[in-house]
UniProtKB/TrEMBL annotation:
One of its GO terms (molecular function) is ATP binding. Keywords: ATP-binding, Nucleotide-binding, Stress response. InterPro entries: ATPase_NBD, Heat_shock_70_CS, HSP70_peptide-bd_sf, Hsp_70_fam. It comes from Candida maltosa (strain Xu316) (Yeast). Pfam families: HSP70. This is Heat shock protein SSC1, mitochondrial.
Length: 633
């Protein structure tokens, strides 16, 4: 028996080898940086440079990963799991998950927490994160076999628009198999690293158009002397090659039904065979004007024999391609540049091999896109470079990524107070001092939000916690530091600390009072992100007016509290007419505040302020009268 020889690679046994892994929707790849400081793809056991992101469970309890799993998918469709990256970190009720229910051969069900999970034919429940772990484990084994050493550290890539829950679930995939994921980086950023680390490349602004098997990302980066700064990012975490496959699959199913009257859509075995034929047809059309789809004995003695031209395919998938255009335009606007300012457009992801997509990209950017890097391998190569940076092997490379939405907390009056603006470079940490809004407050509820609108009710709530045991005191006296931190993986951590300087005789002296949470259930889909950004732009002027009105209402509410305290302290000494006038003002102002809060009547802020000033003048006059009476006595 002949054994495939291992290719000669320029590898040195580094003390801390860090793998670069592209955990893709359709295919995955693993790379490492060699002694020449250049990243290289590691082949799998079959001698291939990419591994299908497929896991299968056989009836004799074997677990197959990669090409072996793909080969038996037709005879074992309900236990063969593919494209599960589209489900990772998602809730079962998400629109994207619901769309996939009828497009896969396996069962997707909710767990007790409402997360999307997978069920094998035998009834075993497994999470998409665990499937990801099995794929990572196979890539790890391939790398260890090639390098002849034990490796337990990696950098793994994710779509730029993955939310916190999806990023955390990806890290959990590594944790489940003992692989320490040092960093989770965005796929287009990784591709830019692979492109920009070639010393022959010039510095400048590049756009990375990344259309893979299940996700689409567009990022604008500026490369300057080894610093990779992401200016803006956009995309769709549920748009990719799988959607093209489904389009062809439905086309084949409908044609067969029209020809024979037989509907195969509920036949899982037939659907799996057609899906595989659809994927093959899609790939063949990258290089041919017309192809023939042949699937023998698809139903009894019935065969599928259909022709598909490149022109027909282009028309069929035009709606999918058009979904990439608007995110590109928004990304360019967010980067505060023009299309003409972009020096080069880099294509990443297997779907960018499609001639129609290349034409659309060229028309959109006004220049021919670059094919300088292998679209299937660029992301893994970039991840390997980042891994080498973290291990100290590669110097003089700095990676600055961004967060897609503003992050902040709810402050008095339902106002959203951002601490980290949208498109801020990460990792980042911001701290801001807040205080209590009413007298005697012993705790604060802190709501954490993500979005772009003025009022918290118009943004996405992603967490809440309470800082308790604050000593009673006047409003505004406690000093509460709220800290937001987004780590290099894009995962959010929020903490609140009571930093009030208490006297030595206070029971709180020297006692730390801190509470923190890690936000891992953001649950923001790409659609929600886009909707927030669009609504923010459309309501910018109205939001500014609302913010000012709410701020006036909050000020009025605080001054009403001050006035009530003054009545409590001096009321017995005031004239009845004075008290009656003050109480009348309090009643009117509180009704106006309530109208503003509920949206019943957005009063003119000048009218509200005048009422508050009049009330204060009456109250101060009454207090001065009391003081005058007391001095005479």
């Amino acid at each position: 028996m002949l054994r495939r020889s291992t290719p000669t690679l320029l590898f040195k046994r580094f003390k801390h080898t860090v793998l670069g892994i592209d955990l893709g929707t359709t295919n995955s790849a693993v790379a490492v940086v060699g002694t020449d400081n250049q990243p290289q793809i590691l082949e799998n056991d079959e001698g291939k440079r990419t591994t299908p992101s497929i896991v299968a469970f056989t009836k004799d309890d074997k677990v197959l990963v990669g090409l072996p799993a793909k080969r038996q998918a037709v005879v074992n469709p309900e236990n063969t799991f593919f494209a599960t990256k589209r489900l990772i970190g998602r809730k079962f009720e998400d629109q994207e998950v619901q769309r996939d229910l009828n497009n896969v051969s396996y069962k997707i069900i909710p767990n007790n927490q409402g997360d999307a999970t997978l069920r094998t034919f035998s009834g075993e429940i497994i999470s998409p994160s665990e499937i990801g772990g099995l794929i990572l484990q196979q890539l790890q084994k391939n790398a260890e076999s090639q390098l002849d050493e034990k490796i337990d550290k990696a950098v793994v890539t994710v779509p730029a628009y993955f939310n916190d829950s999806q990023r955390q679930a990806t890290k959990n995939s590594g944790k489940s198999i003992g692989l320490d994921i040092l960093r989770v980086i965005n796929e287009p950023t990784a591709a830019a690293l692979a492109y920009g680390c070639d010393k022959s490349r010039k510095d400048g602004i590049i756009a990375v158009f990344d259309l893979g098997g299940g996700t689409f990302d567009i990022s604008i980066l500026e490369i300057d002397n080894g610093v990779f700064e992401v200016r803006a990012t956009n995309g769709n975490t549920h748009l990719g090659g799988e959607d093209f496959d489904i389009m062809i699959m439905n086309h084949i199913l409908q044609n067969f039904k029209n020809e024979t009257g037989i509907d195969l859509s509920d036949d899982r075995f037939a659907v799996q065979r057609i899906r595989e034929a659809a994927e093959k047809a899609k790939i063949e059309l990258d290089h041919a004007d017309e192809i023939e789809i042949n699937i023998p004995f698809i139903s009894g003695d019935k065969h599928i024999k259909q022709k598909l031209t490149e022109a027909e395919f282009d028309i069929m998938v035009q709606p999918i391609i058009e979904k990439t255009i608007e995110p590109v335009r928004k990304c360019v606007r967010d980067a505060e540049i023009k299309f003409k300012d972009i020096d080069e457009v880099l294509l990443v992801g297997g779907m960018t091999r499609m001639p129609k997509i290349r034409k659309v990209v060229e028309q959109l950017f006004g220049k021919e896109p670059s094919t300088a890097v292998n679209p299937d391998e660029a992301v893994a190569l970039g991840a390997a470079i980042q891994g080498a940076v973290l291990s100290g092997q590669v110097k003089n490379v700095v990676l600055l990524d961004v967060t897609p939405l503003s992050l902040g907390i709810e402050t008095y009056g339902g106002i959203f107070s951002p601490l980290i603006p949208r498109n801020s470079a990460v990792p980042i940490k911001k701290e801001q001092m807040f205080s209590t809004a009413v007298d005697g407050q012993t705790g604060v509820e802190i709501g954490v939000y993500q979005g772009e609108r003025t009022l918290v009710k118009d943004n996405k709530k992603i967490g809440q916690f309470k800082l308790a045991n604050i000593p009673q005191g006047p409003k505004g006296s406690p000093q509460i530091a709220v800290s937001f931190e987004i780590d290099a993986d894009g995962i959010i951590n929020v903490s609140a600390t009571d930093k009030t300087k208490y006297p030595k005789d206070s029971p709180n002296y020297g006692k730390p009072n801190t509470v923190s949470i890690q936000v891992t259930e953001a649950g923001l889909t790409d659609g929600e992100v886009e909707k927030m950004i669009q609504e923010s732009a459309a309501n910018k002027k109205a939001d500014e007016e609302k913010r000012k009105l709410y701020e006036h209402a909050s000020r009025a509410e605080i001054l009403c509290t001050d006035t009530e305290n003054a009545l409590f302290q001096f009321g017995k000494l005031m004239e009845d007419e004075e008290k009656a006038e003050i109480n009348a003002f309090l009643k009117t102002i509180k009704e106006m505040i309530d109208d503003i809060r509920t949206g019943k009547n957005l009063h003119d802020p000048n009218t509200l302020n005048q009422k508050v000033n009049d009330m204060q003048n009456v109250c101060m006059t009454a207090i001065r009268n009391v003081a005058a009476k007391q001095s005479k006595q």
